[in-house]
Amino acid sequence: MSSPDTAQRLAQQQAIYGMPLSRRFGELMSAYRLSQRSLARVLGVSAPMLSQLINAQRIKIGSPAVYERFVMLEERQDELDLQRVLDEVQASEPVLTAHSNRSRRPDAGALPGAEVAAQLGRMATTEQLRATAEAARAAEAAELAAVLDRAVASRD
């Protein structure tokens, strides 16, 4: 039986990620036939950190790059050569930009701005979002800054 604190953290994960991370990570480990340690290596996170996320000792995936690799694995789990997918995802260096340079499955189109803003709002703190929006403006990436501003506004 879980403690009230654990139940609360599981509920927070459910609200952020659509289901507890134990279930999402479990589905990936099953689909790719990976141990927890192997999944951690592919994602670029320590095994203890992954364990804390799975056991709801931590609520959120703190690194946008780790979250992006996680989503990449979910998007590509139906491909035939799963070892190639694992190798590519592990070698990837995801960056949040206005234009993605990674290829997507044909049926995986770009998310509408509001959905992207909502996703970003779940991955970063308000301060991180504001700082990134300012950096985007400085780099003349106005569309990216607007999405980040929308993510900040959705928290207010």
Which runs of at least 5 residues are low in confidence (pLDDT < 50)? 98-112
Percent of sequence in beta strands: under 5%
Tell me the name of the CATH class of the largest domain. Mainly Alpha
Oligomer: single chain
Indicate the CATH topology of the largest domain: 434 Repressor (Amino-terminal Domain)
Range of helix content: 55-70%
The total of beta strands comes to: 0
Order of helices and strands: HHHHHHHHH
Average pLDDT for all residues? 82
Spatial extent as radius of gyration: 16 Å
Tell me the overall shape.
Answer: globular
Provide the structure class.
Answer: mainly alpha
Could you give a quick summary of the protein structure above?
This protein is mainly alpha-helical and 156 residues long. The chain has helices at 4-17, 21-32, 36-43, 47-54, 64-76, 82-91, 113-123, 126-138, 142-155. The chain has two domains: 1-95, 434 Repressor (Amino-terminal Domain) (Orthogonal Bundle), CATH 1.10.260; 111-156.
Q: What does this molecule look like?
A:
This protein is mainly α and 156 residues long. The protein folds into two domains: 1-95, 434 Repressor (Amino-terminal Domain); 111-156. It contains nine helices and no strands. Helix 3 (36-43) crosses helix 4 (47-54), helix 5 (64-76) packs antiparallel against helix 6 and helix 8 packs antiparallel against helix 9. It starts with a helix and ends with a helix.
